[in-house]
């Protein structure tokens, strides 16, 4: 195995890391500049992205011949493959060209010819990136279109060292997934309405005296004894407290021993409140 061999997964991960770093810094800049008027911030968006991309390129490719994502994975470009002219071309393709495209899309919307050219160039870029990706899967080198155009390769700083994989996170995920499946299987068999009622009766220190012959009172200020909202289709279960039809019927269907949550009166039937 060559000492400068770089696995395909490391090269793809470096691109993903670069995108995440760029998005993270862009989000931080947006949080800092959110005090600006919304219209001004949107108008300066291409310049802000250009300055950010230029700073990232300067402190990564120009200084260390590797992006920040590549540095995190101990990958770098071959220095002899990046002379001054290729560095200028790399900066133009990765920073200046995206700025020109974004500037045209934001500020030249009335120029239909330019918009068509930008769209055509973007479609061609997508197609070329797809072709280059299949070529990368075959050869294992130059994962991005820019690397292919400039003919630059990656080199591993760790030689032929294999990538270490930790399984502790995977183990935790498997345990958690098994626990969630167990809960999803057992929870439907538990009648939590009955458990809630039994627990409430167990913790209740005093019981409220009630009489079955108490008159049900219903007026404009009456609230449902269960949901504490304005009563809809008022019903009662034999005590003086009024429930919404759905609240009372739903609780009795879910728990055969449902009791009034105010006076603990229990009944298997319910009746509509008669308005006199």
TrEMBL record:
Keyword Transmembrane helix on entry: yes
GO cellular component, one term: peroxisomal membrane
Subcellular location: Peroxisome membrane
GO annotation (BP), single: protein import into peroxisome matrix
EC nos: 2.3.2.36
Residues annotated as domain RING-type: 224-264
Gene3D superfamilies: Zinc/RING finger domain, C3HC4 (zinc finger) (3.30.40.10)
Key words, A-Z: Membrane, Metal-binding, Peroxisome, Protein transport, Transferase, Transmembrane, Transmembrane helix, Transport, Ubl conjugation pathway, Zinc, Zinc-finger
Enzymatic reactions: [E2 ubiquitin-conjugating enzyme]-S-ubiquitinyl-L-cysteine + [acceptor protein]-L-cysteine = [E2 ubiquitin-conjugating enzyme]-L-cysteine + [acceptor protein]-S-ubiquitinyl-L-cysteine
Domain of life of the native organism: Eukaryota
GO molecular function: ubiquitin protein ligase activity; zinc ion binding
Topology in membrane: Multi-pass membrane protein
Parts of the chain that traverse the membrane: 174-195
Pfam families the UniProt entry points to: Pex2_Pex12 (PF04757)
Pathway: Protein modification; protein ubiquitination
Main location (coarse class): membrane
Similarity comment: family membership: Belongs to the pex2/pex10/pex12 family.
UniProt name for this protein: RING-type E3 ubiquitin transferase (cysteine targeting)
The species this protein was found in: Anopheles christyi
């Amino acid at each position: 195995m060559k000492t400068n061999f770089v696995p395909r997964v490391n090269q793809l991960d470096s691109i993903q890391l670069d995108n995440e770093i760029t998005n993270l810094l862009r989000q931080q800049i947006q949080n800092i500049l959110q005090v600006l008027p919304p219209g001004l911030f949107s108008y300066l968006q291409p310049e802000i992205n250009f300055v950010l991309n230029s700073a990232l390129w300067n402190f990564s490719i120009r200084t260390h011949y590797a992006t920040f994502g590549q540095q995190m994975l101990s990958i770098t470009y071959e220095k002899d493959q990046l002379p001054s002219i290729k560095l200028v071309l790399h900066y133009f393709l990765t920073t200046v060209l995206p700025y020109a495209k974004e500037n045209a899309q934001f500020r030249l919307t009335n120029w239909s010819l330019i918009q068509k050219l930008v769209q055509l160039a973007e479609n061609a870029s997508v197609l070329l990136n797809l072709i280059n990706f299949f070529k990368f899967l075959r050869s294992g080198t130059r994962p991005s279109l820019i690397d292919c155009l400039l003919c630059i390769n990656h080199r591993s700083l760790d030689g032929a060292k294999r990538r270490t994989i930790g399984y502790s996170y995977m183990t935790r995920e498997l345990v958690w997934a098994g626990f969630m499946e167990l809960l999803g299987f057992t929870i439907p068999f538990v009648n939590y309405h009955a458990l809630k009622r039994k627990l409430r009766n167990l913790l209740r220190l005093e019981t409220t005296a009630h009489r079955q012959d108490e008159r049900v009172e219903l007026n404009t200020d009456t609230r449902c004894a269960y949901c504490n909202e304005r009563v809809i289709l008022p019903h009662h279960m034999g005590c003086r407290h009024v429930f919404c039809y759905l609240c009372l019927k739903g609780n009795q269907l879910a728990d055969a021993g449902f009791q009034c949550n105010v006076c603990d009166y229990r009944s298997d039937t319910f009746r509509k409140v008669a308005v006199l």
